[in-house]
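Thanks for the sequence, V.! I ran Branched-chain amino acid ABC transporter permease right away. Repeating your input here for the record:
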Amino acid sequence: MGTFIQLVVDGLAMGSVYAALALAIVIVNQSTGLINFAQGGMAVLSGYIAYTFLGWGIPLILAIILAMAVSFVLGAVIERFLIRRFEGGDPDTTVVVTVGLLTLITGVAGWLWSYNNLQFPSLFPADSFPLLGAAVSWRSLGTFLTIAAIMVLLQVLFLKTKVGLALRAVADNPRSSSFSGLPVGRLLMVGWGLAAALGAVAGALVAPRLTLTPGMLDSALVYALAAVILGGASSPIGVVVAAWLIGVLENLGAVYVPFIGHDLKIAVPFILLFIVLLVRPQGLFGRKTVVRV
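Predicted structure:
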């Protein structure tokens, strides 16, 4: 029983890492209707920005807040001067642009800060406490609670605030939103800026666990995209629950299913994804899209 609980706790902690990136992807999708494949690279860049502030003697909390502010501006600038040139066109072109942006950001980060593993301090202590036979680290608990709080805040933003409703309206129909008087351009910049700021939080949460490197979120991005599809790109709660589910099932499958083991555990979320999409193509918490013809 203790082993089972330990696997669940560790899965929730790792799932929270996937959820941090997945939430940033949801913000871009809710504000522009696009899937940003460069989100992992933007989060890593934010981590390096925070690391630079730490090198200047700035306290950790303030360094992360400043990194969030810088990332917000960078995200808005990227949307304004790069992504906007392709919005409204062929979606496949935009996908290629975001993949290229991921490669560019990773290369720039490696060029500026090197490809060496850098130690990034954690917001939470590394000590553990016992829970029903399992050892739960304060770092894992803090990451879990942080992601849960962000999930709730984003759900409130998109469903209860004028800014969130405006972002969703722009994503659904930019032309009608413009005719209604909404500042479409500024809202698109805000959406990308918010996603980049959330990426800074993701980078700060992940870097202490994996060490800071340009490619530290490459594999996590794959899981995050799976969580977005599984949970539904329109639901912050859905993608977080899906990310936690992926993390837990991945751990349980590696230990309790002999033919999977640790070598094939990466296949677990995609098997789950395949099964769910056969039943609910919009994801577990996603909304069905009705198209009038």
